[in-house]
Amino acid sequence: MSDVRKRGPFGSRRAAGAAIGAALLGGGLIAVPAAVGADSEPPVKVPDAEVYEPSALPDRIILVPTQTPATSQKVTWRSEVGGEYAQAQILEAPIALGDVRPAEGAVRTVMASSTNPVNTTLGYASVYHQVEFTGLKPDTRYTYRVGDGVNWSEWIDFTTAAAEFEPFSFIYYGDMQNYIDSAGPRVFRQAFADRPEAKVIVNAGDLVNSANSELEWGQWHAADGFINSQINNISVTGNHEYSGGQLSTFWQPTFPYPTNGPDFGDDATNAALRNTIYSVDYQGVRFIGLNSNVQSNAPVMAAQTAWLEQQLANNPNKWTVVTFHHPVYSVASGRNNPTVRAQWGPLFEKYGVDLVLQGHDHTYGRGSTTASRKSVTVHDSTVYATSVSGGKMYDAVSSNWTDNGADQMSVGQDMQLYQMIDVTEDSITYEARYANGEHHDGVVIRKNDAGERTVQEIRTPQNTVGEQVAVDTTSVAFRGTVNVSAWGYDPGETVNVYVRNVERGQDVLVGEATADELGRVLELPVRFPSSAKKLSTQVVYLESVNQQITSPEITVDR
After folding, report:
1. Is residue 31 part of a domain?
2. Largest CB tally within 10 Å, which of 110, 211, 388, 444?
3. Which spans are transmembrane here (predicted)?
4. Which helix (H) or strand (E) holds 527?
């Protein structure tokens, strides 16, 4: 690579200014920068070729998960240095560095396993390097740096995954794509401020607008700053990661994801789709990344679908999160992905996928299948979400959901969002927030060891009242019994059970119930008291700390 460095538009003026300053200082006067003078020129835009030009110093450092995240870790970065010298150093995170030197033998040096020059349209090559740290201890904090043995990055910390399930958080973004350098950074930074201990970041495609734009990839890395260097990144390709049907030349050098995806039967297809379809098991969650850009290629799509079913059917993890770009239920006007919906939707429901995280539509939508609705606020099936993190916006509609058997529980447009997802042994809490940190919406997914599940809207004063109690009949004999069911409680929550006379507004306490581990009260027999006279109209009223809900009206027969 040439050693010639491009100079900014003020190169000669700066040199002249420096000479004038030296002369003034020599004469005992205070130097004034030339730019302050009356003859200063108006500012001009820094040329694209200078903004993100590589140097010997490493940049664009990003953590990429392996198939064994408890004991190994991949790191990629960029520089202008060839692979002969590219290397990384790692040690268990010390309490101090600098004047405090690591103990003898504590630092391990690992040479880069691959180096990939990526030609750009800006007149230089970006050289990407990859290191894999192996033999690591589970759930252990490490410190690493990358470089060429002379020019190093800063020391950076990350923590390996636990060997077994442990609670953790991750962040999910929809499309960034546009306004990456101006509107994007505040979203990434606010998300990190809200979940600084997140272990994973999920990007649902369209990270950039132009697949092979050196400038845009530079903007994307700069927008996330140091965050990608210490949190594992799980990204999938959107349509804007392709140009002319070809995958971005930046993708595979940046994201060397596990090569555990489907075998398409020929080397060319396998090579073209490498690192775009994969799975990672992380602390009790199976993350599955799919490539929805191939949905029009029937043989490739069929092979991917068969692989997906295998990943779902042979999943030892309690929780499953799937991410891809084109939504099962589109939110934007005029969009539809029937092949994705027909081939993948039934598998998500059959195998109990918990979250499906998507992009593409530059709007926000979240919901579940209509058949899984249990009450106004509760479903028991997969949660489908589509979001947008960047500044490009489309109009939102609900028709693609309602026309295809799904409830759109939340919809929004003209909003930049990030999603925080907290995983515990018994629940996943999903919350979407705006770029300014304010709450938009969310759900709590609970699942027991039998695989039964509830998906409950995060409570509001509006959704914790009203007619939400299900009954097995709307007519009952005098002093007869009605079976009632209700959802949306905290596990173990106490519920007082009343029979209320609709005409008189009188309540009679007839019992007490306790919500089960999924927040349900199921098939609870409620015997009507003698005060519920014949031909009267009654409701069952359930009162707890969190909800005050009623049944449909019930008529007492003669």
Report:
1. no
2. 388
3. none
4. strand 521-527
**Strands in 314-424 per DSSP E:** 319-323, 355-358, 364-369, 378-379, 383-386, 406-412, 417-423
Whether residue 53 is contained in a domain is answered as: yes
How does pLDDT run across 289-330, given as a tens digit for each residue?
999 999 999 999 999 999 999 999 999 999 999 999 999 999
**What's the pLDDT band for 34 if we cut at 50, 70, 90?**
low
Gyration radius (Cα) of the chain, Å: 29
Question: Could you list the residue range(s) of the whole structural domain that residue 90 is in?
Answer: 47-163
Within 8 A by CB and 6+ apart from 225, the residues are: 185, 188, 189
* Tens digits of residue pLDDT in 129-170: 999 999 999 999 999 999 999 999 999 999 999 999 999 999
Select from 416, 431, 457 the last residue of a domain: 457
**Tokens 């697949």 appear where?**
211
Domain count, the chain: 3
Residue 20 counted as domain residue = no
Taking the alpha carbons at both ends of the chain, their separation in whole angstroms is 95
- Which of 141, 163, 185 is a domain's end point? 163
| One-character DSSP codes across 247-307 | E-TTHHHH----S-S---SSHHHHHHHTTTSEEEEETTEEEEE--GGGTT-HHHHHHHHHH
